[in-house]
Recover the amino acids of this structure.
C-alpha cells in the first residue's frame, strides 16, 4: 500500500507539472471530466449493503489516508497554520461531506437526469459565489455558456424533465440537490481561497477529505447507521477506484484547475460529466441515444467552447 501511494503521488506530480502549460490545462480538464463521468457507474456498484453516507465516508477516509502516507514518506508534508486549518476544515465539510449528503438524499427521489440538471447550475452558482466572497468579476460569456449548457442537459434528459411534477416529493428533492450544489460551490470558493494563499493543493484536499470523512462517520453514529464494509470484489474495487482515482487524482486536478482558470470556468465540468456517464451507460447498460440527446450534446459542447475560449 505504501509503495502504491508513492507511485500514485509521483504520477500525479508529473501531471501537475504538465498542467502548467496551456495544453496541459486542457489535458487535465478533459481527464477530470472523464474520471468524474465514470464515477457515476462506480457509485452504482456500491449501492446495496452499505448505507451511502457510510460509503462516502469510506471513500474519503481511504483517499485521505493514502495521500497522508504518500506525503509523509516523500517528505512533502508541510506544517499549516491554524488560521488556514479552519479553512481546510470548512473545505472538507462543504466539498467532501455536506454537498454529498444533500445530493445523495435528493437522488433517492429524483431521476439521475434531473439531478444532473440541478447540479449543472454550479456554473452559475460558482460565478455568483466568486463575486460575493472573492470579488471575482462577473463574466457574461461564462454565464451564457452555463445557460447554454444547462439547456443542453435539459434536452439530453427530456423524458425525465417532462415527467417532473410538483405534486409529489420531487420538488423537495430538487431543493435538496440545489442546496448540495450551493454547498459544492462554496467549497470551490474555499478551495480557491486556499490556492490563493499558496497552500499545497494535494495536502489541502487530504486534510479536507479527512475532516469530511470524520464528520460523515460522526453523522452515521448519530443516525444509528452501521459502519460496515462489504467484502466483495465489486464493492472494494469500486471503493478503491472512487478513492484513488475519483478522489485523490480528480480532486487534485480540479482544485488546481480552480486556481488556474477560476471557479466559474472550472465549474463547467459539472455539465460535461453527465455526457461521459451516458457514454458509459450506452456501453454497459444499453442506453439509447436520441435526437434530443444529440442536440443537447452539441449545446453542452458549444457552451464549453464559449466558457473556455479565452484560455
Amino acid at each position: 500500500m505504501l509503495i502504491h501511494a508513492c507511485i500514485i503521488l509521483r504520477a500525479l506530480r508529473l501531471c501537475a507539472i504538465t498542467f502548467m502549460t496551456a495544453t496541459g490545462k486542457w489535458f487535465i480538464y478533459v481527464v477530470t471530466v472523464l474520471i468524474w463521468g465514470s464515477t457515476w457507474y462506480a457509485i452504482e456498484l456500491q449501492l446495496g449493503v452499505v448505507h451511502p453516507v457510510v460509503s462516502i465516508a469510506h471513500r474519503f477516509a481511504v483517499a485521505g489516508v493514502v495521500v497522508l502516507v504518500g506525503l509523509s514518506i516523500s517528505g512533502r508534508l508541510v506544517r499549516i497554520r491554524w488560521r488556514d486549518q479552519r479553512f481546510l476544515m470548512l473545505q472538507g465539510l462543504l466539498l467532501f461531506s455536506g454537498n454529498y449528503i444533500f445530493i445523495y438524499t435528493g437522488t433517492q427521489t429524483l431521476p439521475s437526469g434531473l439531478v444532473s440538471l440541478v447540479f449543472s447550475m454550479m456554473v452559475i452558482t460558482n460565478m455568483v459565489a466568486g463575486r460575493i466572497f472573492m470579488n471575482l468579476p462577473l463574466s457574461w460569456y461564462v454565464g451564457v455558456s452555463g445557460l447554454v449548457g444547462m439547456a443542453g442537459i435539459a434536452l439530453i434528459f427530456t423524458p425525465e424533465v417532462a415527467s417532473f411534477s410538483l405534486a409529489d416529493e420531487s420538488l423537495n428533492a430538487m431543493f435538496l440537490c440545489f442546496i448540495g450544489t450551493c454547498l459544492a460551490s462554496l467549497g470551490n470558493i474555499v478551495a480557491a481561497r486556499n490556492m490563493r494563499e499558496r497552500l499545497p493543493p494535494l495536502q489541502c484536499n487530504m486534510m479536507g477529505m479527512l475532516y469530511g470523512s470524520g464528520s460523515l462517520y460522526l453523522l452515521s453514529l448519530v443516525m444509528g447507521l452501521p459502519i460496515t464494509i462489504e467484502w466483495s470484489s465489486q464493492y472494494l474495487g469500486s471503493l478503491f477506484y472512487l478513492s484513488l482515482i475519483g478522489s485523490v487524482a480528480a480532486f487534485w486536478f480540479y482544485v488546481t484547475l480552480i486556481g488556474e482558470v477560476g471557479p466559474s470556468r472550472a465549474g463547467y465540468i459539472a455539465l460535461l460529466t453527465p455526457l461521459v456517464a451516458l457514454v458509459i451507460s450506452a456501453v454497459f447498460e444499453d442506453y439509447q441515444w436520441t435526437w434530443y440527446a444529440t442536440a443537447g450534446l452539441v449545446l453542452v459542447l458549444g457552451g464549453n467552447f464559449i466558457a473556455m475560449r479565452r484560455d
User: Anything to note?
Assistant: The chain has one domain: 27-308. Residues 46 and 55 are 7 Å apart (CA to CA). Residues 27-308 form one domain. The chain has 14 helices and no strands.
